[in-house]
Amino acid sequence: MMGSEQQRAQIAAGARALIGTTDASLGFTGSANACAFMVNHILKGVFGHVFAGPTPETEGNPNFVPSLRAGLVAGGFRSFTQSANAEKGDIAVQNGLSPGTEANAFENHVGVVIEDPDGGGGLITISNSTSHAAFIHRDDLEFSGIGLPSSKMGPSKFYRFKLPGE
Description:
Layout: H1 4-18, H2 34-47, E1 54-55, E2 58-59, H3 65-74, E3 77-80, E4 91-94, E5 109-115, E6 123-129, E7 134-139, E8 156-161
Antiparallel strand pairs: 1-2, 3-8, 4-5, 4-8, 5-6, 6-7
């Protein structure tokens, strides 16, 4: 593997290795923003740092999905919206129909695209389950199983790491 493919493979492997891990075992004590915490835990293992950028709601909180998203863009990840183009190691964000805030963070959710560990070769997202406080939520690429009414759901947006010049 060459270039950014290596980092994406490491992201996917990190996500697979984290399946079943509880938030608390990694030091997270919050609730609704654990999805961003867990994804940043994976990214820190690959890149050596978390991704967090300032947003109107926060000054770079790595445990807040909009801040993680801003950090991904600033850190060399390129966004796209077509789930058919997703690959293992991409970061998937369920955007909701509004930007989400600290008080209403459920409108944003984040996970990692991996190959379904149950077989079949298809791609799924793996993310944190707030109700189980663990990295165990398996879903399709649009997060249709996270339990939000369709009126609250917007399209997923994907972020893929690319090295400069790729």
